[in-house]
Design goal:
This protein is α/β, with parallel strands linked by helices. The protein has helices spanning 2-11, 28-31, 42-55, 67-76, 88-112, 139-146, 170-180, 214-224, 235-248, 263-269, and strands at 22-26, 60-64, 117-119, 126-129, 132-136, 150-154, 156-160, 164-168, 185-190, 211-213, 252-257, 276-279. The protein has one domain: Acetylglutamate kinase-like (Carbamate kinase), CATH 3.40.1160. A hairpin with a 2-residue loop joins β4 and β5. The structure holds adenosine-5'-diphosphate and magnesium ion.
């Protein structure tokens, strides 16, 4: 704790300037093919970088998921459950490395669009306890925001005080960042049009919710959203569970389809776009 305040003093980090931050999650389902290993959608990354560049949003933080990069490797070595056998260590290293590779590809797209994006590696500034963020040094990230950089984080393999190591989802990260930075809003880009009454990929008559209050979301949560097999962090089910604390905090969340051109641009600009808006009341 003391070290942290010393760092804050050193960096002269006080409150962030207005407007309040926007936290944008770009799902692994958007920038990779989750049914294949190591299949990055670089054209989609480029389009998203262009939309982000065009929107010119101040105080923006981007977090991306693991998709067909992080999840299969994490699953192969059972990283989420923690350190049980020595040979998992190479799996931990591999999961982290594969995420830095995916992140590098997304960062390339930001560089091509002359966006001052800077990658912030979660495993170097976060420690979890039983899978929940316990320590998060975000002074440097706040300083990046104050200097008008765009911090980019991602779901990662991280050290854990009880488990040895585990998987930290991009979904937990956005919620925690939103509360920690007192964000205005969270935008969650996925590969479907928003939150439905059941999985729209399994049920073609699934009904999309345009707006939900926190109370409605909690009621829906258990009965309608099931974990997805190729996602070690629980798919849409995990996403909703993670969003709840941020929404309780008064931060709105909008789930949109980031595979559709201009949806991220429009939602960043506050324009009307299809999706699910979740608000406290
Ligand atoms: N009720 C639901 N509404 C919307 N999507 C759902 C629902 N239940 C399951 N899903 C699935 O959740 C997926 C998105 O979650 P996930 O695969 O974890 O995305 P990401 O990689 O972006 O984190 C969608 O592709 C969809 O098939
Ligand atoms: Mg997911």
């Amino acid at each position: 704790m003391e070290e942290r305040s010393q760092l804050e003093k050193l960096m002269k980090v006080s409150e962030l300037k207005e407007p309040k931050p926007t936290i944008l999650k770009v799902g692994g389902s958007v920038i990779t093919d989750k049914n294949k290993e190591l299949d990055a959608k670089t054209q989609v990354m480029n389009r998203l970088a262009e939309e982000i560049q065009q929107a010119k949003i101040e105080n923006l933080v981007v977090v991306h998921g693991g998709g067909g990069f992080g999840h299969p490797t994490a699953q192969k070595y059972n990283i989420k459950a923690g350190l049980k056998e020595e040979n998992q260590k190479v799996g931990f290293a591999e999961t982290h490395h594969i995420m830095t590779m995916l992140n590098g590809l997304f960062m390339d797209a930001f560089m091509w669009h002359k966006i001052p994006a800077v990658s912030v590696t979660p495993s170097s500034c976060i420690i979890t306890e039983n899978g929940r963020i316990q320590y998060f040094e975000y002074t440097l990230m706040k300083m990046l925001l104050q200097m008008d950089f765009l911090p980019v984080l991602y779901g990662d393999a991280v050290l854990d005080t009880k488990l040895g190591f585990t998987i930290l989802s991009g979904d937990q990260l956005i919620s925690r960042l939103a509360v920690g930075l007192n964000a205005e809003r969270i935008i969650v880009g996925v590969d479907v049009d928003g939150l439905y009454n059941c999985d729209p990929k399994a049920e073609k008559n699934a009904k999309l919710f345009a707006h939900l209050t926190l109370e409605e979301l909690k009621k829906l949560q258990k009965k309608t959203v099931k974990p997805t097999a190729c996602d070690v962090t629980g798919g849409m089910f995990g996403k909703i569970a993670e969003l709840i604390p941020a929404i309780e905090h008064g931060i709105s969340a909008k789930i949109v389809n980031a595979t559709k051109p201009n949806h991220i641009y429009k939602v960043l600009k506050g324009e009307d776009v299809q999706g699910t808006l979740i608000e406290k009341e």
